[in-house]
Amino acid sequence: MTAASVSLRPPATAPEVARRAPRRVLPGFGLSLGYTVAYLSLIVLIPLSAVFAKTSTMGWERFWSVVTAPRVVASYQLSFGMALLAAAINAVFGLLLAWSLVRYSFPGKKLVDALIDLPFALPTAVAGIALTALYSGKGWLGSVLEPLGIKVAFQPLGVLVALTFIGLPFIVRTVQPVLEDIDTELEEAAASLGAARWQTFRLVVFPVLTPALLTGFALAFARAVGEYGSVIFIAGNIPMVSEITPLMIITQLEQYDYAGATAIAVVMLVFSFALLLAINALQAWSARSRGVGAGRGKR
Amino acid sequence: MSGASLVPGAPSHARRFETNPATRESTWVRRAILTLGLVFFALFLLLPLATVFTEALRKGLGVYFAALTEADAVSALLLTLLAAAIAVPLNLVFGVWAAWLVTKFDFTGKSLLVTLIDLPFSVSPVVAGLIYVLIFGAQGWFGPWLQAHDVKVIFAVPGIVLATVFVTFPFVARELIPLMEAQGREEEEAATVLGASGWQTFRHVTLPNVKWGLLYGVILCNARAFGEFGAVSVVSGHIRGLTNTLPLHVEILYNEYQFAAAFAVASLLALLALVTLGLKTFVEWRQAVGQQASQQAGQ
User: Fold this and answer.
1) What is the pTM of this model?
2) Is B172 in the A-facing interface, judged by CB distances under 8 Å?
3) For residue B170, which residues of chain A lie inside 8 Å, CB to CB?
4) Low-confidence ranges of chain A (pLDDT < 50)
5) pLDDT at position A291, please?
6) Given an 8 Å threshold on Cβ–Cβ distance, is B230 in contact with A164?
7) The complex's ipTM?
8) What would the DSSP string read from start to end of chain A?
9) How many CB pairs under 8 A join A and B?
C-alpha cells in the first residue's frame, strides 16, 4: 500500500500507547470538531437562521398574506408542478441511460458517460441562454416545434425543459452504481426458473433499483424547485403564468420588500429541509437494499 | 457518488451482461432502449452545448474575441477568479477537517452534522444570496454598523465572495467523507501508535489514499464557484466593471440583446465545464486504477 512510504519516529513506549489508546487513538478530535462546527455555523447556520429571525418580526398575518398572495401561489404551482414533472421525465430517461451505460457497449460510450454530468458543471446562466436560443422561434428546435403549434420558449413548457436539463445527472448517477452492483445470479435464477426477460426486470431488477431511483427523483426534484439561473431566461417570467418561486423572492427584493422576500424564502427553506430528511431516509433505504441486491440476493 | 467504475483498458464492463443469456435483452429491445436514451441525451445535453458554441461564433471570430477582451469582460473574469481563489481554499481546508472529524471519530450527532454540511446543496441559490442581504444589507443585522464604518459587503466584492463560499461549501467534504469512510482507520491508527504526529499521519497516510478524491472535490468546487449565478446575482447589485462575475456579465449582455457577445463569454464558461468533466473522468480513472492496484497488493 502507499502507506509504506511513511517516515516514522521510533515507536512509542508501551505506557505511552496505553495512555492514549482507549477510544480515540487518532489526534485532533477537539480541534476538528471545534473548527468544523464554528465554520459551519459562521457560513451556513447563522446566516440561515437570519431568515427565520427576520420572519418572526413580521407577524403571522403579514407573513400569511405574503406567502398566499395569488401571484406567489401561482409560482408554487409552476415551480413544484414542473419540478415534479421534470423529475418524472428524468426518472424514465435517466434509467434508460443508466441501463445503457452499465449493460450495453456502444460507440462513444465513454463520452456519453462523461457528458452526463454536464448540467452539474455548466453554469446555470449558460444553460439558460443556450436553451432559450435552442427553443426560440429561430433556434434549431424552436423552428421545428413552432410550426407544429408547440411553443416552448417564454412559456411554462420552457420551465419544464430547463428543469429537465438540470435534473438528469441526479437520476443517472444514483441508479448507475446500484445497477453495476446487482449480482447477475439473481437474474440467472429468474431466467432458469422460466421468467421472461420483462418479468425478470419487473420483479427482480426493478425492486432493487427502486430506492436509488426514488433517491435520484427526490434529489432532482429538490434541485429543480430551487433552480433559478437556467430557468429565468427561458421562462418569459409572465406574472401568474411562468414565474417560478425563486423569481418571486427576487421580485420582492427589487421592491426593497425584505420581509416579503424572506417570507417566501421561509416557505422554500421549510420545504427543502423536509425534502432533505426524506432524501436521507431514502438513501439509508437505498444503501440497505443495495447491500441485499449485491449480496446473496435474499429479499 | 463517483460510482462509475469504467476503467479504460479493463475488459469492457458491459460484456459481462451482453454475453450472458440471462441478463441480455432481445436485439430490438436493446436497440429501443439505446435509441431512446441517446436521443434524449442528444436533445437535452448535446444540443444546448453545441448551441453555446455556434451562437458564440455566429458573427465571426472578430466579434468573438472582441467580446472576450472587452474591459468589462476582463474585470468580470478577474472578479470571478478572485471569488474562486478565496472560496475554494477555504472550503478545501474545511472539507478536509470535516472529513477527518466525521470519518476518524465516533461521536453523538455525527449524522446530523453530515446532514448540516450538505445543507447548502438543498438551499435555493436565491435564498443563499438573500441570507447575506439580511445580515449585511442596509436593513440587515450589521447594516447600520457597516454603514457607519463605511464597509460595503452587499453590492460589493465581499458579498460575492461570501455567496460563493456558501454555495460551494459542501463539495470537498462530500467527496472526501465516503472515500475516507471506506479507507477505515487502521492505517492512521497504526501510524499514530508508532508515534507519528497528526499532521504526519494525515500527510503520509491519509492524503495518498484520498488525493484523487480530494482533487475531484476541488475541481467540482471550482466549477461551481466560477458558474454560480443566482446567489451572486442577489448580492452583486450588477455594477458593471465592479461587481460583475462572468455569469452575471453573460446575463447583462444577453438582456441587452448582444447575443453573440453573451454567448462568447458563455462559451468560455462552457469550455471550463468541459475541462472540468475531462478532469473528472481522468480522476475517476486514476482512482479506479489505484483501487485495483491496492486490491492486488492486498491479495
Assistant:
1) 0.88
2) no
3) none
4) 1-22, 295-299
5) 63
6) no
7) 0.88
8) -GGGG---PSPPPHHHHHHH-SS--SS-HHHHHHHHHHHHIIIIIHHHHHHHHHHHTS-HHHHHHHHT-HHHHHHHHHHHHHHHHHHHHHHHHHHHHHHHHHH---TTHHHHHHHTTHHHHS-HHHHHHHHHHHHSTTSTTHHHHGGGT---TTSHHHHHHHHHHHHHHHHHHHHHHHHHHS-HHHHHHHHHTT--HHHHIIIIIHHHHHHHHHHHHHHHHHHHHH--HHHHHHH---TTTS--HHHHHHHHHHTT-HHHHHHHHHHHHHHHHHHHHHHHHHHHHHHHHHHHHHTT---
9) 360
